[in-house]
């Protein structure tokens, strides 16, 4: 058997990679991530509750209750507003960056088990009430849905997935406390923005799935949502504001479900085709 052609091909692989710009690092990162599209932070010493400063009693956290998985289009996972990136996707859900670019409130930290340890949130994103430019200011004053997010991109568990902590807060005049059932409802209001329908929070299970399309700035996104159990406990213990958030005899402050989103771009503007 003549092995010379195979030998020549192997010698040419580096130049072929350069010529076709094969994204080996991205490919291998995705190939090694679990099929769910993220690593469970708890498997490597992380947590699905944030760390909040100044809680009473001390040491309570807030649930990370939604994930954009790495099974999503790679453009969606880039933290930018251009080219259909993550911030543009948030805008398609009617969520904007903070009011006039000014951060309000205390930072929270999360440990996604990726080797970074506890890190401050990447940003806080607020429901914009239909006004992409100034609506986040309305949310800051009036209250409403908002979330913090972190990227699982440390050296040990580098999935690239986006982990989000949703909560529905009261007006600033009431100290931005969380409304009754405000963690579970906030997650589901976001899913409702995707589907254009009301999500039955109290009837959800780990077999609940939803799908819908949203658009912004010429980009259309299809989002498939699956509710997953096992990442969060179904509990009120250790949850910030638990005394006012849980509904006695009905639901804990956290219902134990995480909404996992797989997002694909189905339409792009003519300038990005």
Question: Percent of residues in beta strands?
Answer: 25-35%
Low-confidence stretches: 4-24
Give the fraction of residues assigned to helices: 10-25%
| Principal-axis shape | globular
Q: Quick one: biggest sheet?
A: 8 strands, mixed
Instruction: Specify the structural class.
Output: alpha+beta
Rg, rounded, reads 20 Å
Task: Please work out how many helical segments DSSP would assign.
Answer: 6
Average pLDDT score: 91
| Strand count | 10
Through-space gap between termini? 45 Å
Cross-sheet strand order for the largest sheet = 2-5-6-7-1-10-9-8
Order of helices and strands: HHEHEEEEHEEHEEHE
Account of the protein in words:
The strands form two sheets. The protein has an eight-stranded mixed β-sheet, with helices on both faces. It starts with a helix and ends in a 6-residue tail after the last strand. The chain contains six helices and ten strands. It is globular. Mean pLDDT is 91; it is low at 4-24. Helices cover 22% and strands 26% of the residues. β8 (209-216) and β9 (219-235) form a beta hairpin. The longest helix is centred in the first third of the chain and has 17 residues, at 4-20. With 273 residues, the protein is an alpha+beta fold.
